[in-house]
Specification:
10 helices, SH3 type barrels, alpha+beta, about 20% helix, 5-stranded antiparallel sheet, globular, Fumarylacetoacetate hydrolase, domain 2, 2 domains, 8-stranded mixed sheet, single chain
Length: about 425
């Protein structure tokens, strides 16, 4: 079934041409509105309260058709809503779009719909999903190559398995926070090259990682596998993801079992989950894969998306510097391949599980998705617009990720994922 919203449709609600939240988007999140939680969407700068819509009967036809439990619209996480299945959630999305469409001239419906709007500034967006399990992948060839050159040299940049499987590790779900939540500088063990033994203290190499993540929208049972061409049936939508990293802690601990304290202290997500159906007009083929992956990872259709990504650093004094500009389409391994590999051994997945892409770096230095690469392990300080410089992130800095797709006058965006860095305790 086609769940896209035609590009030529317009809303009777005023939407700026550069707004992330057009009629063609209709993402989902969880908002705190005057002390209560609700499933919400957004158009322009107007947050749409789905709980209010339900109470006014604006979703009645969809609710009756899919036998929807009405309490899902007042939940404190999207999980129960997502668990309704794509047919139901997309029917809700299309119903919202129909009510907002300028072609809908029903005065009573317009008035009721308008009463469900809450100004964006009056809504506190909270963590949109309850994350049961979180997996972080390592799917950008450019990023993996850059890191490999730094630590192993050009001749051994990519590990032997990298071009054959989507590399990943299981992360910490409980420390994933929503945009606007401050991040406390972590402490741990480090061993600088000049030290004879490890030191303990706050990280000196705090970093961001420009990533995107997808939300699992369908359960599987232990022992089941998801085929690559069916994988998107199990993906509800996407959001921005900043996997904060303490590079010096990570460098000392990661052999032989991989990341631990250098990663698990915090990750930041955007509050809006954009559905794959909203991103359909921006679908693209990914990079050519050579050697050809094993059959279970071979994909016949395009599973990448043209999503422009930027990272800004805002100093304590308020100066904003754009650090990098990248794109989701640069990823070597697609979401479909990530999910197929994740489940090929029978690992079960559950609604609300979060799977992040890994750092998304592009082919040129301006598209590198981490301070580690941008400053080349601290050797090349980054000049900020106010004359300051950075090799890694300082206390008082805010890191802001943004992402959007734009083509032929159509724009679908994710808002932002931002976090202020606080000093270590």
């Amino acid at each position: 079934m086609d769940f896209t919203i035609a590009a030529d449709r317009r809303s009777w609600v005023s939407v700026a041409h550069d707004s992330d939240f057009s009629l063609q988007n209709i993402p989902f999140g969880i908002g705190s509105i005057h002390g209560r939680t609700a499933v919400v969407s957004i158009i322009g700068t107007s947050v749409v309260d789905l709980s209010a819509m339900e109470q006014l009967g604006l979703l009645e036809e969809v609710i009756e058709h899919f036998t929807i439990d009405r309490t899902v619209f007042a939940a404190s996480a999207l999980n129960p809503f997502i668990a309704l299945g794509k047919a139901a959630t997309q029917a809700v999305r299309l119903r919202i779009a129909a009510l907002l469409d300028e072609a809908n001239e029903a005065g009573d419906e317009r008035a009721k719909m308008a009463s469900c709007f809450v100004p964006q500034r009056e809504v506190s967006m909270i963590m949109p999903i309850q994350v049961g399990d979180y997996t972080d992948f390592y799917s950008s060839r450019e990023h993996a190559t850059n890191v490999g050159i730094m630590f192993r040299g050009k001749d051994n940049a990519l590990m032997p398995n990298w071009l054959h499987i989507p590399i990943g590790y299981h992360g910490r779900a409980g420390s994933i926070v929503v945009s606007g939540t401050s991040i406390r500088r972590p402490k741990g063990q480090m061993k600088p090259p000049t030290a004879d033994s490890p030191l303990f203290g706050p990280t000196r190499q705090l970093d961001f990682e420009l990533e995107m993540a997808f939300v699992v929208g369908k359960n599987t049972s232990p022992g089941d596998s998801v085929e690559v061409e069916a994988a998107e049936e199990y993906i509800f939508g996407m959001l921005l993801f900043n996997d904060w990293s303490a590079r010096d802690i990570q460098a000392w601990e990661y052999q032989p079992l991989g990341p631990f304290l250098g990663k698990n202290f915090g990750s930041t997500v955007s509050p809006w989950v954009v559905t794959l159906e909203a991103l359909e007009p921006f679908r693209e083929a990914g990079p050519a894969q050579e050697p050809l992956p094993l059959p279970y990872l071979q994909q016949q259709s395009a599973h990448h998306f043209d999503i422009g990504l930027t990272v800004d650093l805002i100093t304590e004094q308020g100066t904003l510097t754009t650090l990098c500009e990248s794109n989701h389409k640069y990823l070597y391994w697609s979401m479909a391949q990530q999910l197929a590999h994740h489940t090929v051994n029978g690992c079960n997945i559950r609604v609300g599980d979060l799977m992040a892409s890994g750092t998304i770096s592009g082919p040129d230095p301006g598209s590198f998705g981490s301070m580690l690469e941008l400053s080349w392990r601290g050797e090349r300080p980054i000049k900020l617009l106010d004359g300051q410089s950075r090799t890694f992130i300082q206390d008082g800095d805010t890191i802001r990720l943004r992402g959007w797709s734009s083509r032929d006058g159509l724009r679908v965006g994710f808002g932002e994922a931002s976090g202020l860095v606080l000093p270590a305790y």
